[in-house]
Design goal:
With about 120 residues, this protein is an all-alpha fold. Helix content is about 65%, strand content about 0%. The protein is built from six helices and no strands. Helix 2 (about 40-45) packs parallel to helix 4.
C-alpha cells in the first residue's frame, strides 16, 4: 500500500506541475499594444483560472484576469471557461442528486400524502 500511495502522490505532483505551467503570467502589454484579449483568450483564462488562483497566492506577477481585454466578449469567454471547469449549475445539481444515495425521499413524500388521503 505504501508503493501505491507513492505513485498516487507522484501522479498528483506531476499533474500539478503540468497544469501550473499553463497558468497566465504577467501582462507586459498593460497600457499599450494593439491587440486586447478577446473571447478565446478569455475562455482559456477561465479554464485555467483554478490553477492560476493558486499560483497567484505565491507570485505577485500572476493575475487571474487579463487587464487589457476587449470588454464583454472577454468577460463572456472567461465565464464560459470557468463554467466548463467547475461544472456550472448542472454539475452542482448532479452532485446533489448523487449525494442523496437513492434514499427515495421523493417517494416517501408521495406515500405520506397518499396515505393521509386514503
Amino acid at each position: 500500500m505504501t508503493a501505491r500511495r507513492g505513485w498516487g502522490l507522484g501522479l498528483v505532483l506531476c499533474t500539478a506541475l503540468l497544469l501550473t505551467s499553463c497558468a497566465a503570467g504577467a501582462n507586459p502589454a498593460v497600457g499599450g499594444g494593439p491587440d486586447p484579449a478577446g473571447f478565446w483568450l478569455g475562455l482559456w483564462h477561465g479554464v485555467i483560472s483554478p490553477i492560476t488562483v493558486i499560483v497567484s497566492f505565491f507570485r505577485d506577477d500572476v493575475s487571474i484576469y487579463e487587464v487589457r481585454n476587449s470588454g464583454n466578449w472577454y468577460d463572456f469567454g472567461f465565464m464560459v471557461g470557468v463554467s466548463i471547469i467547475l461544472g456550472g449549475s448542472h454539475g452542482g445539481r448532479r452532485r446533489g442528486e448523487r449525494g442523496s444515495g437513492g434514499s427515495g425521499s421523493g417517494r416517501r413524500g408521495r406515500g405520506v400524502s397518499g396515505s393521509a388521503t386514503s
